[in-house]
Known about the structure:
The chain is built from 9 helices and 16 strands. The chain is an alpha+beta fold and 289 residues long. It has a single domain, classed as Ribonuclease Z/Hydroxyacylglutathione hydrolase-like (Metallo-beta-lactamase, Chain A, 4-Layer Sandwich). The strands form 3 sheets. A 7-stranded mixed β-sheet has the order 1-2-3-4-5-8-9. The protein has a 7-stranded mixed β-sheet with strand order 10-11-12-13-14-15-16. It has a two-stranded antiparallel sheet with strand order 6-7. A hairpin with a 2-residue loop joins strand 6 and strand 7 (135-138). The protein is globular and about 50 Å long. The protein starts with a strand and ends with a strand.
Amino acid sequence: MSLEYSVGDLTIHRIIEQEAPFFPALEFIPGLTPEVLTENRAWMRQAKALDEQDTLILCFQSYVVKTPHHTILIDSCIGNDKPRPQRPNWHMKTDDTYLRGLGAAGVSVDDVDFVMCTHLHADHVGWNTRLQNGRWVPTFPRARYVFARQEFDYWTEHNAKAQVPAFVDSVLPVVEAGRHELVGSDHQIGDHVRIVPTPGHTPGHSAFALGRSRDDAVFSGDLIHSPLQALYPELSMKFDVDQATAATTRRGFLERYCDTDTLCCTAHFPSPSVGRIKRKGSGFVCAAV
Length: 289
């Protein structure tokens, strides 16, 4: 299982916080039928994407990308000390798995220049902040935290109606510390980082394309959760805010990167999580490299 990839002039490290059975497949993907699950059960189990109880196995991870100029963290995972009572595996965690993973990749919290969040769900912003003397402070003190303006506005509006815990403890403290940047889809960082709007899972969800003047790697976030959705892009998952848009976005993204050299770095596919998109029938596979 590779945790490090080199492509173009990028070095990419996977920082895994958890990899575990997460949700019954038929519940997580409402459009999935028992028949289609049966047809795909054998290869899904072999790929460690499905366990013996037909529960999907998901990886929760960040990617650290080193360009010639910057160290960029993409999605900051689950975090410690965060009240997440609906998710026992995430609730008030105190382990050192994540920070050890960063250390193993040769990265300290002071090395990160940019933190980029594909969207602002709890398992993508958790390590944006850490608890220090009872206060939430930015985990990466030197970093600029890049949020899509549309995504930020969406959660600001929701949080005004009813408190959104992840927004309160993992996003707003970054804003209060003056470390954030709200950007449009035309935003670039140097000549290596571009934003690819991928709405559906959330209204402002973004994928990130990295590489000098071409997409050497793309980080898909929650555009797609399971290899099953590559084969059947029309299958959206239950937490997609707009399931029809998510399905259209997913197929468009897979078409765009299909049969190219672009390394597709998924947020939640089981290890190795990284591959190249190939056509298979009327769908696609993410073939490990």
